[in-house]
Design brief:
Strand content: 15-25%
CATH architecture: Alpha-Beta Barrel
Distance between the termini: 27 Å
CATH class: Alpha Beta
Helix content: 25-40%
Strand order of the largest sheet: 1-2-5-6-9-10-11-12
CATH superfamily: Aldolase class I
Bound molecules: (5S)-5-amino-3-OXO-hexanoic acid, zinc ion
Order of helices and strands: EHEEEHEHEEEHEHEHEHEEEHH
Structural class: alpha/beta
């Protein structure tokens, strides 16, 4: 089995300091957390911009600072969010891609998102994909439900996208596909040929589905964006604590953990930025 790629999703757009006191917010805090996660075994860091007051932002300058601060510390792959936060315009959300990061996310459809609706108009999704191709940014397709995976297949058929594809199954968002073993097995059974995949289980499923992915040959995303707890009733002390646990489980299961350069090779990312 190829080595395990661990992604650390440090903060997301929705989690607050009230929910998780160790949440990184400023570019410096985000970079320090990314460095700690890299030391604990993460090869990719998924980042969201935040203003100093903690509110989410897709401001290009904020992302520029985040990327520069991470690069000063380590060579982890930086994956910017284009999901941003519910309610942001497509234009706002796309801004960080113009910085030409190594990777960016691309949400593959609209979905109820807790009490909100996370809108992804088909026309906007195509614009996002074209911009990422134009800038040579490796896409991670965010798939929250089965219809979104069908859209990936439709895009392949239309010749809009081609191998090597990398897909993130985000399971357990209230309103989207459940974070169950059956759901993950179904999703993996529908993967496009040759695609690599990772799983982001929401809440307690971060650990259970992450462990499944290790065994199935997939990859794993952990971090405060999806889960703020270490175990039921006990907050995690840092993102790195969650990374270290999944790295430990993987090694115990005899699957080595990928360095950023090994992850670049697995994902087909040609050059380090
Ligand atoms: N914050 C969510 C509405 C992504 O980063 O690509 C969307 C999100 C997806 O977090
Ligand atoms: Zn995100």
């Amino acid at each position: 089995m190829e080595k395990l790629i661990i992604t650390a999703a440090l903060s997301g757009a929705e989690v607050t300091r009230e929910q998780q006191p160790a949440l990184p917010i400023t570019p410096d805090e985000i970079a320090a957390a990314a460095h700690e996660c890299a030391k604990a075994g993460a090869a990719i860091v998924h980042v969201h911009g935040r203003n100093d007051d903690g509110s989410p932002t897709q401001d290009k300058e904020t992302y520029r600072k985040i990327i520069a601060a991470i690069r000063e510390r380590c060579d982890i792959i930086v994956q910017v969010s284009t999901g941003g936060a519910v309610g942001m315009t497509a234009e706002e959300r796309l801004a960080p891609v113009t910085l030409v990061p190594e990777m960016a996310t691309l949400s593959m459809g609209s979905v109820n998102f807790g009490g909100d609706v996370f809108m992804n108009h088909p026309a906007d999704m195509e614009i996002f994909a074209k911009a990422m191709h134009q800038h040579g940014v490796k896409i991670e397709y965010e798939v929250f439900d089965t219809g979104m995976l069908s859209t990936v297949h439709r895009w392949i058929k239309k010749g809009m996208i081609s191998a090597p594809l990398h897909i993130d199954f985000v399971l357990g968002i209230p309103g989207a596909m459940a974070a169950t073993p059956e759901a993950l097995m179904y999703m993996t059974s529908q993967l496009p040929a040759g695609a690599s995949w990772t799983v982001a289980g929401i809440g307690a499923a971060q650990l259970s589905l992450g462990t499944m992915a290790i065994l199935l040959g997939g990859h794993v995303r952990v971090g405060f964006e999806d889960n703020v707890y270490y175990r039921k009733g006990e907050l995690a002390t840092s993102n790195a604590q969650l990374v270290a646990r999944i790295a430990r489980i993987s090694r115990e299961l005899d699957r080595a953990v990928a360095t950023p350069d090994e992850a670049r090779a697995i994902l087909g990312i040609k050059s380090k930025k």
